[in-house]
Design brief:
The chain is an alpha+beta fold and about 675 residues long. The protein has a domain of about 450 residues. The strands form ten sheets. Strands 2, 5, 6, 7, 9, 11, 12, 13 and 17 form a nine-stranded mixed beta sheet that branches. α2 crosses α4, α7 crosses α8 and α11 packs parallel to α14. The N and C termini lie far apart (about 80 Å). Belongs to the neutral ceramidase family. InterPro entries: Ceramidase_alk, NEUT/ALK_ceramidase_N.
Length: about 675
C-alpha cells in the first residue's frame, strides 16, 4: 500500500486540530477540578444544571466589597472561577407618574409527587403518593418610577426556603440580570405547607428528615422560582400599591398557651388574644385601576392537612390563593391568568388552624395541659383537630375564611403606599452574637442544639417515640444512645442552652456536613412606610410582636415615623423556631427547637434594628457583608427508591382503554 503524503494545507490543519484538542483537554481539566466537599456558593455546583460556574458576586449598592473566600474541610482554597454575566435587556420604563413599576408572576414549582418524603412533619414513611394541588412560586417586583431602586418578594408553596435554594436562585439571577436582582433586594419566603416535597436542603438534620437530597425536586423548585421572577420582570408596568389591615376571626388557636403565659402579664395585657389576628394586605393595580395582584401576611400554620396525608398540596393558604386567583382570573384554568395572589407566612410559630383544640383521640377528653399528654397513651394520643369533617374539609374551611377576609380588605384598600424603596441585608454567624441585655450586661447566642421536646412534636403532628413537651431534664436512656452514636455534647453547649436538656448537639456535629447552619441571613426591604422583615425561621406570636415593635421604634427614632412592619416568615434559610426568653424557660416544642439558645430573639431584634437604622440614616453602604455561607457538595443521595412506572402486562402507555363514541348527548 502506497504511503500517504500530506499537502502543506493538510499538515497545517492537522497541527491546528491537535492544538485545539490539547487546549480543550486542558480547559476541561480545570473545569472539573474541585476543591473538596464544602464550596463557597460561587464555585462549581455539583448538582447544578447551569452550564457554567456562576459569576462572582461583586459589591453592591448595599455594602462594601469583600474578598471571596472558599471554606473547605480537607484542603486549601482554590481560585474562584467566574463566567460571563449575560444581562437581560431592561424593558423601557415610563417615568412620569406617581406610584411604582409593578410586575407580578406565577410559575409551577411542584417537583416530585412520588418517591419522595413530604417536608414538615418529619414523619418517616410520609411519602408523596400523588397530587391534590399543584405548588406555585408567586413573584412581585416593585421599582421606583425611574427604575433606580427595586425590590422582589417571592412567596413559594413549599415548607420553607433552604439556604441552598436561595444561593442557587441568586446565582442564576446574577447570571441573567447582572446586579439588578441581588441578595439584599430579593426575599424568598416559604408558605410553610407541610405537604410539599422535601429533599432540597444541604444541612444534615434536614437532609436526614428529607431522607436524602433530591436534585430532581431541587431543580424543579429553582426553575419555578426563576420563571416566576422572569414573568414578573417582563410584565412590569406603572401602577399603585395600597395597604389595608383587618382581623381574621375563628381560624387559629395558640398551640402552646402555657408557653405564652410565661411572658410578663403586663405585656400580655396589651393584647386581646394569644395569637395575632391581624391580616396585612397589599393591593396592586395599574394606573387604570385594573387588578394586578395581592400579597397577604397572616400568622397561621398550614397544617390543616395532617401527617396522615400523602398527597402533595399547598394546604389552607394555597387554597386561599386558589380561590382568589380563580375569582380574578375568570375563564382561566388554575395556575393561569394575569392576577397573582400570595398568602404569605408570618409569625406562625405557635399558631394552629386546628381550632377544635387538642383532645385525646382514644378517649375524647381534652389534653390542653402543659405537657400535651393523655392519661392513657401519653403525648402520642394528644392531637388537635380542625373544624371540618376531615382534613380536606378543614383545609377548605380555613382557606375560604382567609380568602374571604383578604378579598374584603383588598376591595376596601384606600391607603396608598408611597415613598422610596430600600433594602438591607447581612450574613451573620448566629452562633456567636453578643447580645446587650442592658447598658452593662451582655449574653451570647449558642452553637445550635435541639432539646428533648423537639422529639415530642406538637398537637398538630406528634412525634413517634412518646417524648413529651415541656421537658427540662434529660433521660439517661436516650443520653446513652446519643453518646454512643454521636458523642457527648460539650459542657459549654449544655451550659449555654440551659434550661434546655440537649437531645442533639447539632452545632458540634459536622459529618458528613454540618448539621445546622451557622451563617444566617437577616434582611429588610422597605416600600415607603412599609417594612418587610425577612425572618429565617418561625417566630412565635409574642416574638413577632416584640420584633415589630422594636423595628418600628428604631425607624421612628431616626425620623421614619408610623412605619408598618410585617413579619415575613420562613425566609432565605431555615433555622427552626424563635421563642421569647420567657417562653424558652417552659421548653415546649417551639422552645426546644430554638436552636441558638435562650437569647436568640434578642439577637435577632438587635440585628434587625441595625438594618432599620442603616435604611433610615441612608448608611446601608456601610454595613458589613458578613461571613458568606457555604455551598456543600456530594450530598446524601435519596434513600427512597425510585420506582419505575410500568404498564400492565400486554399493554403499553397510550393504549386506548375505551374507544370514544361517535356522538354524545348533553
Amino acid at each position: 500500500m502506497a504511503k500517504r503524503t500530506f499537502s502543506n494545507l493538510e499538515t497545517f490543519l492537522i497541527f491546528l486540530l491537535v492544538m485545539m484538542t490539547a487546549i480543550t483537554v486542558a480547559l476541561l481539566s480545570l473545569l472539573f477540578t474541585t476543591s473538596g466537599t464544602i464550596e463557597n456558593h460561587k464555585g462549581e455546583h455539583f448538582f447544578s444544571t447551569t452550564p457554567n460556574p456562576p459569576a462572582t458576586q461583586g459589591s453592591t449598592a448595599t455594602q462594601s466589597s469583600t474578598a471571596t473566600q472558599r471554606s473547605t474541610a480537607t484542603q486549601s482554597s482554590t481560585a474562584t472561577q467566574t463566567s460571563p454575566v449575560t444581562s437581560t435587556p431592561e424593558p423601557p420604563l415610563f417615568q412620569n407618574f406617581s406610584g411604582y413599576h409593578i410586575g407580578v408572576g406565577r410559575a409551577d414549582c411542584t417537583g416530585q409527587v412520588a418517591d419522595i418524603n413530604l417536608m414538615g412533619y418529619s414523619k418517616s414513611g410520609q411519602n408523596a403518593q400523588g397530587i391534590l394541588t399543584r405548588l406555585y412560586s408567586r413573584a412581585f417586583i416593585m421599582a421606583e418610577p425611574d427604575g433606580s431602586n427595586r425590590t422582589v418578594f417571592v412567596s413559594i408553596d413549599i415548607g420553607m426556603v433552604s439556604q441552598r435554594l436561595r444561593l442557587e436562585v441568586l446565582n442564576r439571577l446574577q447570571s441573567k440580570y447582572g446586579s439588578l436582582y441581588r441578595r439584599d433586594n430579593v426575599i424568598l419566603s416559604g408558605t410553610h405547607t407541610h405537604s410539599g416535597p422535601a429533599g432540597y436542603f444541604q444541612y444534615t438534620v434536614f437532609v436526614v428528615a428529607s431522607e436524602g437530597f433530591s436534585n430532581r425536586t431541587f431543580q424543579h423548585m429553582v426553575t419555578g422560582i426563576l420563571k416566576s421572577i422572569d414573568i414578573a420582570h417582563t410584565n412590569m408596568k406603572p401602577g399603585k400599591i395600597f395597604i389595608n389591615k383587618g382581623n381574621v376571626d375563628g381560624v387559629q388557636i395558640n398551640r402552646s398557651p402555657y408557653s405564652y403565659l410565661q411572658n410578663p402579664q403586663s405585656e400580655r395585657a396589651r393584647y386581646s388574644s394569644n395569637t395575632d389576628k391581624e391580616m396585612v394586605v397589599l393591593k396592586m393595580v395599574d394606573l387604570n385601576g385594573d387588578d394586578l395582584g395581592l400579597i397577604s401576611w397572616f400568622a397561621i400554620h398550614p397544617v390543616s392537612m395532617n401527617n396522615s396525608n400523602h398527597l402533595v398540596n399547598s394546604d389552607n393558604v394555597g387554597y386561599a390563593s386558589y380561590l382568589l386567583e380563580q375569582e380574578k382570573n375568570k375563564g382561566y384554568l388554575p395556575g393561569q391568568g394575569p392576577f397573582v395572589a400570595a398568602f404569605a407566612s408570618s409569625n406562625l410559630g405557635d399558631v394552629s388552624p386546628n381550632i377544635l383544640g387538642p383532645h385525646c383521640i382514644n378517649t375524647g377528653e381534652s389534653c390542653d395541659n402543659a405537657n400535651s399528654t393523655c392519661p392513657i397513651g401519653g403525648s402520642n394520643m394528644c392531637i388537635a383537630m380542625g373544624p371540618g369533617r376531615d382534613m380536606f374539609d378543614s383545609t377548605q374551611i380555613i382557606g375560604r375564611a382567609m380568602y374571604q377576609r383578604a378579598k374584603e380588605l383588598y376591595a376596601s384598600a384606600s391607603q396608598e403606599v408611597t415613598g422610596p424603596l430600600a433594602s438591607a441585608h447581612q450574613w451573620v454567624d448566629m452562633t456567636n452574637v453578643t447580645v446587650w441585655l442592658n447598658s452593662t450586661h451582655t449574653a451570647k447566642t449558642c452553637k445550635p442544639a435541639l432539646g428533648y421536646s423537639f422529639a415530642a412534636g406538637t398537637i398538630d403532628g406528634v412525634g413517634g417515640l412518646n417524648f413529651t413537651q415541656g421537658k427540662t431534664e434529660g433521660d439517661p436512656f436516650w443520653d446513652t444512645i446519643r453518646n454512643q452514636i454521636l458523642g457527648k455534647p460539650s459542657e459549654e453547649i449544655k451550659e449555654c442552652h440551659k434550661p434546655k436538656p440537649i437531645l442533639l448537639h447539632t452545632g458540634e456535629l459536622s459529618k458528613p456536613h454540618p448539621w445546622h447552619p451557622d451563617i444566617v441571613d437577616v434582611q429588610i426591604i422597605t416600600l415607603g412606610s412599609l417594612a418587610i422583615t425577612a425572618i429565617p425561621g418561625e417566630f412565635t406570636t409574642m416574638s413577632g410582636r416584640r420584633l415589630r415593635e422594636a423595628v418600628q421604634a428604631e425607624f421612628a427614632s431616626h425620623g421614619m415615623q408610623n412605619m408598618t412592619v410585617v413579619i415575613s416568615g420562613l425566609c432565605n434559610v431555615y433555622t427552626h423556631y424563635i421563642t421569647t426568653y420567657e417562653e424558652y424557660q417552659a421548653q415546649r416544642y417551639e422552645a426546644a427547637s430554638t436552636i441558638y439558645g435562650p437569647h436568640t430573639l434578642s439577637a435577632y431584634i438587635q440585628l434587625f434594628r441595625n438594618l432599620a437604622k442603616a435604611i433610615a440614616t441612608d448608611t446601608v453602604a456601610n454595613l458589613s457583608r458578613g461571613p458568606e455561607p457555604p455551598f456543600f457538595q456530594q450530598l446524601i443521595v435519596p434513600l427512597i427508591s425510585n420506582i419505575v412506572d410500568r404498564a400492565p402486562t400486554g399493554r403499553t402507555f397510550g393504549d386506548v382503554l375505551q374507544p370514544a363514541k361517535p356522538e354524545y348527548r348533553v
